[in-house]
Amino acid sequence: MKICAVIVAAGNSTRMQSGGRSKLLMELCGEPVLRHTLRAFDRAACIEEIVVVTRPVDFDAVREAMQGIKKPVRITEGGAARQDSVANGAALCADADYIAVHDGARPLITPAQIEAVCAHAQKYGAATLAVPVKDTIKIASAENFVEGTPDRAALRAIQTPQVFHLPLYKRALERAAEQGKQYTDDCQLIENAGGVVYLTPGDYRNVKITTPEDLPMAEAFYKMLENEKENGI
């Protein structure tokens, strides 16, 4: 079974307050964020090739971040919305059986986590990394009052990669297009088409770098993970 990774890196990084510079090209422990992400997929045995979806203005910098990556990597332009960007990446994976969609801004993903979620996707057709929600969640009204409190035991925070059988993903895209719907979460796209997504246990350190305070947190987690590797944990 051929699995193609689609790394989504086409956002404008507005919440990062980086002055238009892509957060994926910012440094994390001395290397671009994107290089850390690519290295994990390069080392995951289940992944055969990688597609990076990004802004044309970042093409050259992305090629620079690809240094040291041994697997085939192709670059394509992002779309107007995330769903369009993933579709652009998937179009370059036409001969794959599965696609593994990952946020480029999650640089602390590990090869073991990639392989675990890919194995579950091959078993169930669709799978995503997820972790139990730690905080109590409230449902807010339009007037900003509490309307309800869902059972925390049933709640999961969804991470990436999200891995899908490619024919299932294509059918889901077609259905969303027919309905005129756009989804920011690829699992929701699959759910809308009647698909079932398996929840593979993730890791709280698989953080997404979105706002300025996320970068030092990711650096701390990175050092923790490196220390575990050195000590064989």
Tally of extended strands?
11
Predict the CATH topology. Spore Coat Polysaccharide Biosynthesis Protein SpsA, Chain A
Distance between the termini: 30 Å
Beta-strand content bin? 15-25%
Element order: H for helix, E for strand? EEEHEHEHEHEEEEHHEH
Level-1 CATH class name: Alpha Beta
CA radius of gyration is 18 Å
User: Tell me about the biggest sheet?
Assistant: 7 strands, mixed
**Architecture (CATH level 2) name:** Alpha-Beta Complex
- Sheet with most strands: strand arrangement: 5-4-1-6-10-7-11
pLDDT < 50 runs, ≥5 residues: none
User: What is the CATH H-level superfamily?
Assistant: Spore Coat Polysaccharide Biosynthesis Protein SpsA, Chain A
Determine the structural class based on helices, strands and strand pairing: alpha/beta
- Indicate the mean pLDDT: 94
Counting DSSP H or I runs of 4 or more residues, the number of helices is 7
How many separate domains make up the residues? Answer: 1
Helical content band: 25-40%
Shape: globular
Can you walk me through this structure?
The protein is an alpha/beta fold and 233 residues long. The protein has one domain: Spore Coat Polysaccharide Biosynthesis Protein SpsA, Chain A, CATH 3.90.550. Helix content is 34%, strand content 24%. It has helices spanning 33-43, 59-65, 82-91, 111-124, 166-179, 186-192, 214-230; strands at 3-9, 27-28, 31-32, 47-54, 73-77, 98-103, 126-132, 139-140, 146-148, 156-165, 198-201. The chain has a seven-stranded mixed sheet with strand order 5-4-1-6-10-7-11, sandwiched between helices. The protein has a two-stranded antiparallel ribbon with strand order 2-3. The protein has a two-stranded antiparallel sheet with strand order 8-9. Helix 5 (166-179) crosses helix 6. The longest helix is centred in the C-terminal third of the chain and has 17 residues, at 214-230. It starts with a strand and ends with a helix.
